[in-house]
Amino acid sequence: MNFSSLSEIASYIVSDGKGILAADESNPTCTKRFDSIGVESTEDNRRDYRELLFRSEGMKGNIGGVILFDETIRQTAADGTSLVDVITSQGSLPGIKVDKGLQKIGSTEESLTQGLEGLDERLKEYFEIGAKFTKWRAVINIGKDMPSSEAISANMEALAEYAKIVQNNNMVPMVEPEVLMDGNHSIDDCFEATSRCLDTLFACLLDKEVDIKGTILKPNMVTSGSNNSDQANVEEVAQKTIDCLKAYVPDDLPGVTFLSGGQSDIDATAHLDAMNKIGGFNWKLSFSYGRALQQPALKAWMGKKENAILAQQALSHRALMNKLASEGKWDISLEN
Ligand code: 5MM
Questions:
Q1: pTM exceeding 0.85
Q2: For residue 113, what is the enclosing H or E element?
Q3: Is 157 a catalytic residue?
Q4: Structural domain harbouring 143
Q5: pLDDT tens digits, residue range 225-259?
Q6: What residues are in contact with ligand 1 under a 6 Å CB criterion?
Q7: The CATH number of the domain where 314 resides is what?
Q8: Is the residue at 178 inside a domain?
Q9: pLDDT level of residue 154 (50, 70, 90 thresholds)
Q10: What distance in angstroms lies between residue 31's CA and the mean position of ligand 1's atoms?
């Protein structure tokens, strides 16, 4: 696939309802996922699992990009093909997580994402390996006195700085300001925190002269906190998320690809579908799910070779369901 601009790459990833498979779990996160199915998190097991995902039939036409972790972008499949080539042969573009994780801000419960040091050099290598886009995740908490303006400013400034360096290296930056679902806050608290983040983020991107047409936004949806007994319904989540995005996201951004953030796989699909049925925005509204795409596949796999096909079918199904949701064409009856 040949692209002549960053905007073409970004637009391709979200074209025709396609979305992103987030498979960039760092090793500790991958270990947590594997622990849940009783599988040891070795380099080979991580490779085998991800190879089976990337070779799934349902990658084609439904998944426009895959976010990888540093270990994975360097790995080869069992037959010697690089995983980057496996992904590309499915019509999907390889991306790479380039942040270096979170560091607490002083003695607070808030964090600042690390990774700007040496970023330019690392990007040059990832570009050579074949990465077409990158990801950086900032994490924002809702709680007593949180999010603080300091945490929002520091994280959004770092996201903009990262995005500029990535574009200078000819790759599309995906900017992920994740307001966590953890807590018993209301959907309105989430609306407010997400609004503050997006407002600051786009001001910082403008300030750094980041090309918005060559950028992808990966936000959270506006939901109730996961411990709140009063959960907003699908229509409310969809409407409030759209209202929040429309207030701060410029029209020329090619794609908004949501994270799932701990939502069930069906909820993540239902919310996306409801937003696309409402419509009235310029950007493609699609997905960049980790857990909501992988969970059924992980459970089907259980670390056993003989379960590979079942696991691939599970991933293919979720990929197709979310592609339909990105076009507002999903229905719960399709899940049976
Ligand atoms: C796949 O997980 C990503 C990496 O997480 P760690 O750095 O904690 O290992 C994560 O950034 C992910 O891309 C997003 O949170 C979206 O995944 P979910 O599961 O929320 O859709």
A1: yes
A2: strand 111-113
A3: no
A4: 6-327
A5: 999 999 999 999 999 999 999 999 999 999 999 99
A6: 22, 24-26, 29, 67, 137, 178, 259-261, 289-292
A7: 3.20.20.70
A8: yes
A9: very high
A10: 13
